[in-house]
Design a protein that fits this description.
This protein is α/β, with parallel strands linked by helices. The chain has eight helices and eleven strands. Helix 1 packs across helix 3 and helix 3 packs parallel to helix 7. It is globular. The mean pLDDT is 95.
Length: 253
């Protein structure tokens, strides 16, 4: 056997797990597009009852009530966690993965509550290398990112687009790293992007991400924004956009 032969195949395990839960993967409709939502964003979506829990795939996968092509799920934390989740979802039939999460702003003009969409992430993780992508930068899917960016701009959401930084160590950002990634144009730092984008590249699917700035790393230190209302207002705008256009299958051209 070739030493580089990969011993594990996600679909083998997913099929067994789904069968044990009473589902035949070949005879159910899995959403083509799935939003992977950070904890509080997921909780808000569930509370709005715009989707119904359908399948134990990658977690608890909800499907939109009026558009079965789209679903949402609580995202796993960190690159290894979201990479495994993405593997399971893709093995089940999902083709497009959109992470909506939280991030720390890096640029000096960044504000708490700002919405960002990423063209890809500078890689400070192990996942990409282990999947054969030993690159400094892992990009998102351009067509999907373009679609999301245009959708937000056309609906008057103030969004900034660019690159960002993904790290496996969320409490180890140094001032030197902030300066280095700033100089590369990174808008923010978070912990999942590279893991998600790597799996999408490896499995030849599509992935992108939208972030809400919850804290800022700048010359004044670490400024946290959780006590104000800016984060909640931005999250509400994004949720409203998702539920309005995707529940009934309507999208901006």
């Amino acid at each position: 056997m070739d030493r580089n032969y990969v011993m594990t195949e996600p679909k083998d395990l997913v099929c067994i797990e789904m069968k044990n839960a009473g589902f035949d993967l070949d005879n159910i409709k899995i959403p083509k597009r799935v939003f992977l939502l950070a904890d509080s964003i997921y909780d808000a979506m569930v509370a709005k009852k715009c989707g119904t829990y359908k399948y134990p795939l990658g977690g608890k996968l909800y499907v939109f009530n009026d558009n079965t092509d789209v679903g949402f799920i609580k995202s796993q934390m960190c690159s290894p966690g979201i990479a495994i989740q993405a593997e399971d979802l893709i093995a089940g039939g999902v083709k497009e993965l959109i992470h909506i999460g939280f991030a720390g702003g890096l640029q000096s003009d960044m504000n708490v509550g700002q919405c960002l969409i990423t063209d890809g992430a500078y890689n400070d993780t192990a996942i990409a290398r282990l999947y054969g992508f030993d690159y400094d930068f892992i990009e998102t899917s351009k067509a999907l990112t373009d679609e999301l960016y245009d959708l937000m701009k056309n609906n008057s959401i103030d969004v900034r687009r660019g690159k960002h930084w993904t790290t496996d160590a969320g409490y180890r950002e140094t001032w030197g790293q902030v300066l280095d990634y700033r100089s590369k144009g990174a808008l923010c730092v978070e912990m999942e992007g590279v893991g998600l984008f790597t799996i999408a590249k490896y499995r030849k699917c599509f992935a992108s991400a939208i972030y809400v700035v919850t804290d800022v790393l700048n010359e004044n230190g670490w400024s946290l924004g959780w006590e104000g209302n800016e984060i909640d207002r931005s999250v509400e705008k994004i949720i409203k956009l998702i539920t309005y256009y995707y529940r009934k299958g309507r999208r901006e051209d």
